[in-house]
Amino acid sequence: MKVLVVGPKGKMGRLITQIAAEREDMTLVGGVGPVGRAYIGQDLGNVAGVGYPLNVPVVDRLEEVIDDCDVLIDFSTREMALEALQAAVAHKKAFVCGTTGFSPEEMEKFKEASQQIPVLYAANTSKLVNVMNRLLEIAATAIGNETDIEIIEMHDRWKKDAPSGTSKEIGEALAEALGLELADVAVFGRKGESLRQENTIGYHSMRMGDYPSSHIVNFGGFGERLEISHHSYNFSCFASGACDCAAFLADQKPGYYTVKDAIKF
């Protein structure tokens, strides 16, 4: 399949380009960066640090290259991702998005687009994270009403949104297992003096150095505590998963898909 990378200079875009370049089932046809950046017009392989030229350009106008691709993989910014989504719909191209920080109204645009094209949105494309989510659903169903649930998420100092998209997905899954709405029970950090309210899910966000990603979920009981966690050592697991998601979309009809659909376990 022919792949177009949106945001090939970013940490995820570079890794996705590097991994896709080595896959036999993928051909890179270009990259799309923000308007006016110094690397626009350069070879995608050089921009993404592949180690050799790919003989395809990085452009700042998506319309120049979108008709050459089968699927777009986007790990860029909210603004670029929404523009890319709109173009994907107009040109009937499959769309994988791992960008986070969208408002509920913006997320609705992905659902609307999925009526016309295959869309896969994932705040986290790691296979192990999605195995963790399955374990969390089991734990929440079994002991969620008996324990205090707290989520700790850690990312690098450059991550803009907090809490992370992955931790939001975790919280939504936990709340659903408990028959609750996350918006009604989420507590973000604590300050002052008050008792912990029952049936709430606590969030704590840390941003430091170049730390890739950690998500830790605690189920605190009396005299014991269950911890389920995932720690990434670098971003390659997410990039590899994103490419797997793109490969999955190759044969799909229009619809809204998740990593659970793409990565079987």
TrEMBL record:
Pathway: Amino-acid biosynthesis; L-lysine biosynthesis via DAP pathway; (S)-tetrahydrodipicolinate from L-aspartate: step 4/4. CDD domains: DHDPR_N (cd02274). It comes from the Bacteria. GO terms for cellular component: cytosol. Belongs to the DapB family. Keywords: Amino-acid biosynthesis, Cytoplasm, Diaminopimelate biosynthesis, Lysine biosynthesis, NAD, NADP, Oxidoreductase. It catalyses: (S)-2,3,4,5-tetrahydrodipicolinate + NADP(+) + H2O = (2S,4S)-4-hydroxy-2,3,4,5-tetrahydrodipicolinate + NADPH + H(+); (S)-2,3,4,5-tetrahydrodipicolinate + NAD(+) + H2O = (2S,4S)-4-hydroxy-2,3,4,5-tetrahydrodipicolinate + NADH + H(+). It holds the Pfam family DapB_C. GO terms for molecular function: 4-hydroxy-tetrahydrodipicolinate reductase; NAD binding; NADP binding; oxidoreductase activity, acting on CH or CH2 groups, NAD or NADP as acceptor. GO terms for biological process: diaminopimelate biosynthetic process; lysine biosynthetic process via diaminopimelate. The active site is at H155 (proton donor/acceptor), K159 (proton donor). The keyword NADP applies. This is 4-hydroxy-tetrahydrodipicolinate reductase. The gene is dapB. NAD(+) binds at G7, P8, K9, G10, K11, M12, G98, T99, T100, A122, A123, N124, T125. (S)-2,3,4,5-tetrahydrodipicolinate binds at G165, T166. Its main location: cytoplasm.
